[in-house]
Structure formats: structure tokens, C-alpha cells
Design a protein that fits this description.
This protein is of the alpha/beta class. The chain has helices at about 1-20, 55-70, 90-95, 125-135, 170-180, 210-215, 235-240, 240-264; strands at about 30-35, 75-80, 100, 110-115, 120, 140, 160-165, 195-200, 220-225. It has one domain: Aminopeptidase (3-Layer(aba) Sandwich), CATH 3.40.630.40.
Length: about 260
């Protein structure tokens, strides 16, 4: 208990230092970096009835992932590579969570080369480079998934993608937390017994997800959370409930914390 208390105090001091002195001093904290996977101009996967989309959902609930990580004594930063939101509720949620707006939107699926590893090009590279600048412990790209524009009754198997060399253990830890606390549990998210799996990927230099490679080159574990399908009625019904959405977000945070504790 004394060690955990000390860790929390150190984390709080480091975060205060970041707030006072800016990004250049943040590297010493080695934070977990959370990326809100889309932006207001490219909102990502959405429910067929328009009730849920990736950008707004994670703008509202990424703070819960962050809270679970920080409560365990680790530093955490949320980034959004797009411009600051204009909707009042979204803007307020982002401000409360301390979201860092990187202001380099991937508008029109624009791809950027990494400033660290320019042979790798991708839409999410701005966030990847930011994480490399901070010497992040790991990066979690918060997404929702979809397999079409119409409703389905049976969801596909849940999925977490990870970078090939460094991300597998982190992905497995988040998977385990999802199995234990969310999927096909009483009061949980129905998943037709399909479960959840890890997909390690190495992306070539040109496709849009080359940012996973850059993080692998830097030795930083990275995952993309894709375990909720917004074209599935059961999944959407679950995450549209505020309590459930917070539980989902905190479960992701718990999986990250379990991995961090095994690294220390």
C-alpha cells in the first residue's frame, strides 16, 4: 500500500510538472497515451440510426479510461489528432478529461510520414509521433468497429489489433479484462459467445495504419480497440447506456493497468 501511495504521489507531481512546463518535460513521466481514434470531420464508424459514432463516443468516455489508469498510480495523456470539438457537450467532456488537441486532422484520409521513422506513413502518425516524443509506456487507440451500414443481429468476434513485436501482452491483458467484466456477462454486453481475439499486425509503409510500425520501431506497445460493433443492436444498446459506457471504458483501463503492473 505504501509503494502504491508513493507511486500515485509521484505520478501527480509529474502531471503537475507537465501542466506547468509543457510537452518537452512530459517525457520523464512515460505516460500511457490514449488516442481518440477519429475527429469531428471524420467521425469513424457509426450506428445505422446515427445514435453512436466513434469520435463522439470516445470524446465523452476516454476520460474514464484515463481515470482508471491514473487511480492505479500511472500517468496518462489523451490526444486527439483533429481540431478541437465545437459541440458544447463534447468540448466540455474533452476539457474535463484534459484532452490534448494536436490540430492536425487526417481530413480526406491524409497520411503523414513519421518524423522519427519517415519510411512509415499513416493516418494516425501524428498521435504515434506524439507518443514517441513522450517516451510513452504504451498507446491505446480507442475505436469502435462496424461490418456494414445496416443492423446485424449477431456480432462478429471481438477484436484487438496490436503492433507485431511489442503489443501482444498488452492486447491480451485488455482482452482478459473484457472477457471477465463485459462480454456475455449478466448485465454485460451480449456477444453470442463469440469472445474476443488478438490480431498482431505489421503494416506496410503505404497503407493508412503504418503508425503501428513506427511505434513498434520505437519499442512502444500499441493496440487498437475494435471490440464493439456499432452496427450490432445488442452492442449499441449496451454502450448507449451511460453506466455501461463508463464500465466499458474503465474495463479497458483496468486491462492496461494489469499489464503495467506486470511490467513494473
Amino acid at each position: 500500500m505504501m509503494i502504491l501511495s508513493l507511486k500515485k504521489k509521484c505520478s501527480a507531481l509529474l502531471l503537475a510538472l507537465v501542466a506547468l512546463t509543457g510537452v518537452s518535460d512530459a517525457a520523464s513521466s512515460h505516460p500511457v497515451v490514449l488516442d481518440i481514434g477519429h475527429q469531428s470531420t471524420s467521425r469513424g464508424a457509426g450506428a445505422p440510426d446515427g445514435s453512436v459514432n466513434e469520435y463522439e463516443f470516445w470524446s465523452m468516455y476516454a476520460g474514464e479510461v484515463k481515470a482508471a489508469i491514473e487511480e492505479a498510480g500511472y500517468s496518462c495523456v489523451i490526444v486527439n489528432r483533429g481540431n478541437a470539438p465545437t459541440k458544447i457537450a463534447i468540448a466540455e467532456a474533452c476539457e474535463a478529461a484534459g484532452v490534448v488537441q494536436l490540430n492536425r486532422p487526417d481530413r480526406g484520409a491524409k497520411r503523414y510520414p513519421s518524423t522519427h521513422y519517415p519510411e512509415h506513413i499513416g493516418c494516425g502518425m501524428v498521435s504515434a509521433d506524439y507518443a514517441i516524443d513522450l517516451a510513452a509506456r504504451c498507446v491505446v487507440f480507442l475505436h469502435l468497429n462496424s461490418v456494414g451500414n445496416s443492423w446485424s443481429t449477431t456480432p462478429p468476434r471481438g477484436l484487438i489489433i496490436c503492433n507485431r513485436r511489442h503489443g501482444n501482452a498488452l492486447a491480451e491483458s485488455v482482452c482478459e479484462a473484457m472477457r471477465r467484466d463485459i462480454l456475455d456477462r449478466p448485465g454485460g454486453m451480449p456477444n453470442a459467445g463469440k469472445g474476443i481475439s488478438v490480431l498482431p499486425r505489421y503494416i506496410g509503409s503505404q497503407p493508412s495504419a503504418g503508425w503501428m510500425n513506427a511505434l513498434d520501431e520505437a519499442g512502444i506497445p500499441a493496440i487498437v480497440f475494435e471490440a464493439v460493433y456499432v452496427n450490432n443492436r445488442g452492442h449499441v444498446t449496451f454502450i448507449r447506456n451511460d453506466t455501461n459506457a463508463r464500465k466499458l471504458a474503465r474495463t479497458i483501463g483496468t486491462g492496461v493497468v494489469n499489464w503495467l503492473e506486470n511490467q513494473d
